C-alpha cells in the first residue's frame, strides 16, 4: 500500500527521486500515465494489469476503443535508476503542468505526482468542504 505525502523536485532532465518508502514496491518496474485531475499516476506493473482489466471489463467495442486510445498511448513504463529516480516523460509533465516543485502522494494502490501549488490548493479545498471522513 502506498501512503504518505512527500515534497520532491524534478531536475532539468525530467528526473525525480521516488520516495524511499515507495522504491521497494517499484523494483520490478512500473507504469506512469495521466491521473485523475491535474496529476500523474504511477502503478506497479501488477496493479496496472489488474486495473486495466477492471476498467476494460464490460465496455462496448466503441467505448473500449476510445478508452484504450486515451490511456495506453500516453502511458510509459518506468524503472528506477541506481539513485532511485525515474524519468517523467515530457508530454506527461506538460499534461500535469509539472515544473520543478512537486508533491508525491501515496494513494492506496498507486502514487500520484502533483504540482506542489496545485496539490496545496486541492487539499485546502477538501479541508474547507469538510468531507466527514471517519478517521
Automatic annotation (TrEMBL):
Residues 5-47, 75-118 form the SpoVT-AbrB domain. PROSITE patterns: SPOVT_ABRB. Keywords: Cytoplasm, DNA-binding, Repeat, Transcription, Transcription regulation. It holds the Pfam family MraZ. It is found in: Cytoplasm, Nucleoid. Its main location: cytoplasm. InterPro entries: MraZ, MraZ_C, MraZ_dom, MraZ_N, MraZ_sf, SpoVT-AbrB_dom, SpoVT-AbrB_sf. Belongs to the MraZ family. PANTHER family: TRANSCRIPTIONAL REGULATOR MRAZ. Forms oligomers. NCBIfam families: division/cell wall cluster transcriptional repressor MraZ. This is Transcriptional regulator MraZ. It comes from Ktedonobacter robiniae.
Amino acid at each position: 500500500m502506498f501512503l504518505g505525502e512527500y515534497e520532491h523536485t524534478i531536475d532539468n532532465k525530467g528526473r525525480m527521486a521516488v520516495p524511499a518508502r515507495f522504491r521497494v514496491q517499484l523494483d520490478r518496474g512500473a507504469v506512469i500515465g495521466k491521473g485523475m485531475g491535474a496529476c500523474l499516476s504511477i502503478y506497479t506493473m501488477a496493479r496496472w494489469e489488474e486495473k486495466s482489466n477492471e476498467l476494460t471489463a464490460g465496455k462496448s467495442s466503441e467505448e473500449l476503443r476510445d478508452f484504450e486510445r486515451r490511456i495506453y498511448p500516453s502511458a510509459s513504463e518506468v524503472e528506477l535508476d541506481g539513485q532511485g529516480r525515474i524519468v517523467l516523460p515530457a508530454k506527461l509533465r506538460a499534461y500535469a503542468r509539472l515544473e520543478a516543485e512537486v508533491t508525491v502522494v501515496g494513494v492506496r494502490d498507486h502514487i500520484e505526482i502533483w504540482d506542489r501549488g496545485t496539490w496545496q490548493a486541492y487539499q485546502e479545498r477538501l479541508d474547507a468542504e469538510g468531507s466527514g471522513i471517519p478517521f
